[in-house]
């Protein structure tokens, strides 16, 4: 029931369905107004006809008749008339009355009640005229107007009802089809924005219209974006691969040069600095190659279910001595077993190692590094109580080679979090950077082990 209600709510919120409902409402309102106008016009004509009949009936009485003669005429007409349709009553000056109904005066108001026979249930339209020292009252039933109302209600039910239902049914069917196409476009755009540049809309079997043109445009844009991204990724990998070997050779040559120089002096210091810079460049290219390989998705072929908690405990045991030597405190909160996720354990261990080293590098001595593993949903977080990352910079620090201004004097090359982001994206994990109050908390939320982990290149989706 919950899924059906959610599906119905989503359908009703879609623009095509709302447009269909609005169109049906307009059709229903137009029919209602036309039928209502016709009813009011016919009702007014019928009421004028009844009143004209009453005026003619009053005019048929002799104005010079005596009270006794008028009473006799009224009595004769009353016996011949059905009080359910026509009422004739004469109220004499002495309070006596004759006719086929009873009349009561309350000020200027006249109330008609049953005499020897019952009256009609539809009510009456009456006219009164002073005559022969008394008051002559004639009335006709409003049954024709009631019948007209019933006729129009039946007409409304048998014409407007089916019209609305048919229009609503056809409109909803068309709107649902349009809504599915819109949902398909939206889902494809969400996949593209999440980094899945292979997402495409299927060919639209419908005749060319606005949505099919939009879909074709989305596919063209995605194809160009994928081609440009793949080209950039390939160029990056090629540059990193081609330059790594010459840099490594330069490093070897510098080490050879350094071995031939005296231990002290400006030439030796210059050679040491050049060797350090070359080593730094080699590490940058190595990290860029690693990111390119991860984003290429080759490692997903090695995915298997594994115990996230066990992998994290192994990394913590490895880093515990070095963290304590650096004057920091490292803690771990994890269940004894699990959670089980699907992925490559060595890559998750590398991501955790990068996060720990990042915390060591950017927090003062004595800071805490808290690592936590949760099972529902499977997640890994690394938090510290250092200076943190400003809110406006949190998306930027995931970019390659981006560094905060205050971090430019510390070791590093700005690729650590980029590598974590690539690993998270490959595993379909959601990577978030949060305020730890004080400090930074980096959290990776993984899908369940049975989830689809084909991977996405954007872990922040």
UniProtKB/TrEMBL annotation:
The positions making up the signal sequence are none
Q: Which residues form the Histidine kinase domain?
A: 238-450
Q: Matching CDD domains, A to Z?
A: HisKA (cd00082)
Q: Name one Pfam family in it.
A: HATPase_c
Any one GO MF term held by the record is: kinase activity
The HAMP domain, residue ranges: 176-230
Q: What class of enzyme is it?
A: transferase
Instruction: Please give the start and end residues of each transmembrane region.
Output: 20-42, 152-175
Q: Which reaction does it catalyse?
A: ATP + protein L-histidine = ADP + protein N-phospho-L-histidine
UniProt-listed SUPFAM superfamilies:
ATPase domain of HSP90 chaperone/DNA topoisomerase II/histidine kinase, Homodimeric domain of signal transducing histidine kinase
- Keywords of the record: Kinase, Membrane, Phosphoprotein, Transferase, Transmembrane, Transmembrane helix, Two-component regulatory system
Q: Which PANTHER family match?
A: HISTIDINE KINASE, SENSOR HISTIDINE KINASE YKOH
Its protein name is histidine kinase
Per the UniProt entry, what species is this protein from, by scientific name?
A: Rhodovulum visakhapatnamense
């Amino acid at each position: 029931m919950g899924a059906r209600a959610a599906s119905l709510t989503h359908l009703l919120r879609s623009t095509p369905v709302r447009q269909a409902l609005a169109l049906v409402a307009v059709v229903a309102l137009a029919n209602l107004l036309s039928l209502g106008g016709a009813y009011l016009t016919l009702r007014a004509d019928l009421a004028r006809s009844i009143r004209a009949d009453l005026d003619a009936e009053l005019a048929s009485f002799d104005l010079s008749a005596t009270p006794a003669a008028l009473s006799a005429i009224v009595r004769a007409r009353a016996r011949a008339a059905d009080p359910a349709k026509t009422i004739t009553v004469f109220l004499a000056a002495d309070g006596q009355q004759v006719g086929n109904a009873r009349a009561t005066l309350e000020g200027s108001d006249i109330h008609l009640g049953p005499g020897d026979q019952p009256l009609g249930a539809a009510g009456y339209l009456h006219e009164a005229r002073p005559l022969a020292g008394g008051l002559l009252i004639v009335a006709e039933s409003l049954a024709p107007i009631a019948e007209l109302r019933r006729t129009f209600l039946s007409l409304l039910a048998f014409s407007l009802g089916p019209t609305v239902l048919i229009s609503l049914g056809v409109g909803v069917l068309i709107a649902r089809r349009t809504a599915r196409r819109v949902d398909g476009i939206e889902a494809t755009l969400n996949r593209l924005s999440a980094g899945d540049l292979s997402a495409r809309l299927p060919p639209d079997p419908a005749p060319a219209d606005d949505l099919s043109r939009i879909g074709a445009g989305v596919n063209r844009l995605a194809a160009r974006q994928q081609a440009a991204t793949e080209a950039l990724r390939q160029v990056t990998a090629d540059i990193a691969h081609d330059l790594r070997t010459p840099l490594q050779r330069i490093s070897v040559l510098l080490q050879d040069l350094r071995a031939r120089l005296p231990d002290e002096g400006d030439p030796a210091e210059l050679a040491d600095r050049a060797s350090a810079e070359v080593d730094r460049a080699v590490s940058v290219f190595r990290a860029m190659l690693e990111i390119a390989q991860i984003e290429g998705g080759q490692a997903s072929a090695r995915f298997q279910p594994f115990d996230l908690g066990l992998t994290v405990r192994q990394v913590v045991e490895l880093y515990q001595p070095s963290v304590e030597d650096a004057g920091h405190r490292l803690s771990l909160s994890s269940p004894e077993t699990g959670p089980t996720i699907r992925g490559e354990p060595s890559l998750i261990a590398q991501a955790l190692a990068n996060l720990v080293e990042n915390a060591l590098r950017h927090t003062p001595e004595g800071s805490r590094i808290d690592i936590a593993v949760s099972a529902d949903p499977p997640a890994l977080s690394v938090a510290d109580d250092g200076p943190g990352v400003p809110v406006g910079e949190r998306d930027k620090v995931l970019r390659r080679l981006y560094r905060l201004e205050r971090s430019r004097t510390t070791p590093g090359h700005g690729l650590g979090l980029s590598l974590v982001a690539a690993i998270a994206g490959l595993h379909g994990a959601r990577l978030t950077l949060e305020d730890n109050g004080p400090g930074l908390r980096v959290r990776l939320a993984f899908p369940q082990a049975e989830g689809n982990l084909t991977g996405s290149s954007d872990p922040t989706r």
